[in-house]
Design a protein that fits this description.
Chains A, B: InterPro entries: Homeodomain-like_sf (IPR009057), HTH-type_TetR-like_transc_reg (IPR050109), HTH_TetR (IPR001647), Tet_transcr_reg_TetR-rel_C_sf (IPR036271), TetR_C_16 (IPR041678). Chains A, B: This is TetR family transcriptional regulator. Chains A, B: Keywords: DNA-binding. The structure is a homodimer. Chain A is mainly alpha-helical. Helices cover 69% and strands 0% of the residues of chain A. Chain A contains twelve helices and no strands. Chains A and B meet through α7, α8, α9, α10 and α11 of A and α7, α8, α9, α10 and α11 of B.
């Protein structure tokens, strides 16, 4: 679903967005930022954001589409994460590891990658940690977790380990630009890191007892 | 070796560091920051830093100790990385994976951890990427690389993969504070991530051909 533009029903004035529209859009973004930061993604409703912003919920949907798209707008995510997440939904569980690494590299190495790096730096350097946490935990990781959860293992630690591996790959490849990782081709990284991600998701991940001397 | 204090020979004035001393110290730090950023760690000499700062090389050693300690002062590293690196030197290669994970967790989870997190956020969010790269590549990773390099494999990609894993663990555990990783006990992380680091260092890390469909 593509977010609807604010000028879908009312023609935009030649000099840009009408002040009233622009004001409402900004108010919604500001309210959403506070709600998402304080309550996370799941517990934030479009209705609550609309109330905080003093607008009708329909206007929130009108400007931003789904709640996930509203979140993406708040963190200024340069691509719709839904595209990558859908590719992950479609793949059989034994191929999740390689698919995840390949899908993320595809986005990071694309023209949209620069925007993602800028976002990561802003989030880490600035004060948007709560938003980063909500994005990773409730949007990205939860989507993978439901694929691997069993009655014995809810998979929370497993997807956390994947986040620890992949966030470090983003950091070293795109932010710090560490030579051997920055210039490694995607196939090499899929071959080396894919099996790690697969092990974290479905393999033997050891136990504290086994690791003690 | 502990860095010598600036007041080792001349008693400090009761109101604080003497203006002349403080000025030289700041000049050295400023010159070192520029050299390390532009030329990396290896190619920067104490002599060149001293020349840039307009002081005698002996004064650089006097204030900061070794070149590595000067670097640690430039990036405001809260602990002497040498302590951790020496623990890594001492361990047999087949135990490097677990040892690395345990040694880094020990520092990050210690009272000095807050300073390391602050440094990581400052480096990533700000413009100190070149310093972060020099620190990782030339100080930390090089020290591990010489342990695992063989005539067939210089180990550069291998230590890069370890950096990608461990920087992501720091990011998720201490910076983003992602629930399952933030609260996992050290033993669990050593048991789950140790084998990954060991595989990256000495195991089968796959090849692009093997990963292609």
């Amino acid at each position: 679903m593509t977010p609807k533009k604010g000028n879908a029903e009312q023609p935009r004035a030649r000099t840009g967005r009408r002040p009233g529209q622009s004001g409402a859009r900004e108010k919604i973004l500001r309210a959403a930022r506070i709600r998402f930061s304080e309550q996370g993604f799941d517990k934030t409703s479009i209705r609550a954001v609309a109330t905080d912003a003093g607008v009708d919920p329909a206007l929130v949907h009108h400007y931003f589409g789904t709640k996930q798209q509203l979140f993406a707008a708040v963190v200024e995510f340069p691509v719709d994460p839904e595209t990558t997440l859908r590719a992950i939904d479609a793949v059989p569980v034994p191929q999740l590891g390689e698919t995840l690494v390949r899908a993320l590299l595809l986005v990071w190495d694309s023209p949209a990658g620069a925007g993602i790096v800028a976002m990561a730096r802003r989030i880490i350097g600035g004060g948007e940690i709560a938003l980063a946490r909500a994005f990773l935990l409730e949007i990205v990781m939860e989507r993978v977790r439901v694929r691997i959860a069993t009655p014995e293992d809810d998979g929370r630690l497993r997807v956390g380990l994947v986040a620890a591996q992949m966030s470090g790959l983003l950091l070293t490849r795109k932010v710090i630009q560490l030579d051997p990782i920055e210039h490694a081709d995607a196939d090499t990284l899929v071959a080396t890191i894919g099996p790690t991600v697969q092990r974290y998701l479905t393999g033997e991940i050891g136990s504290p007892a086994a690791a003690s001397p």
